[in-house]
Amino acid sequence: MSRICREVRELLPAYVDGTLSRVRRPLVALHLRRCGDCQAEFSRQRALRTSLVALATPATPPEGLLDQLLEQSASPRGAAPLRGAVSGARPALSVALLAAGAVAGAGAGWVSWASARHLRHRFRP
Ligand SMILES: [Zn+2]
User: What spacing in Å lies between the alpha carbon of 26 and ligand 1's midpoint?
Assistant: First the structure.
């Protein structure tokens, strides 16, 4: 391994993190374009960092999602078919149906949000 390669390898973690100084960053970038070995090492470290970041990021729904879901489940449009279906039924059953509807709505929202987040990660350059 050449001396410049060794120097670049030492700088790679900071380069991947984005904490490398502005002066050194273009030098590393230039070397990565010319050196396949260092480029491969860079890709490896970047992939590792991406998965670490994904692991460290708590799976918290975006702000407002819960409010939005609650609003949807409480809206007259969403509740009307349910109301018709349960009219005359026992109150406990109505509550159970409403709760099931709310949970299903929240679940669907969660799944679409989670997969969108997953896709963003996968296609990040
Ligand atoms: Zn190199």
Answer: 14
Q: How many residues does the chain have?
A: 125
pLDDT truncated to tens, each residue of the chain (125 aa)?
899 999 999 999 999 999 999 999 999 999 999 999 999 999 999 999 998 888 888 777 777 887 888 887 776 655 555 555 555 556 666 667 677 776 666 666 666 666 666 666 665 55
Centre of ligand 1 to C-alpha 54, Å, is: 28
Question: Hey, what long-range contacts does 44-50 have (CB within 8 A, 24 or more apart)?
Answer: 45/12, 45/13, 45/16, 46/16, 49/16, 49/17, 50/121, 50/124
Ligand 1 center from residue 42 Cα (angstroms) = 10
**Structural domain boundaries of the chain?**
3-56, 65-122
**What is the 3 CA–ligand 1 centroid distance (Å)?**
9
Ligand 1 centroid to Cα of residue 7, in Å, is 9
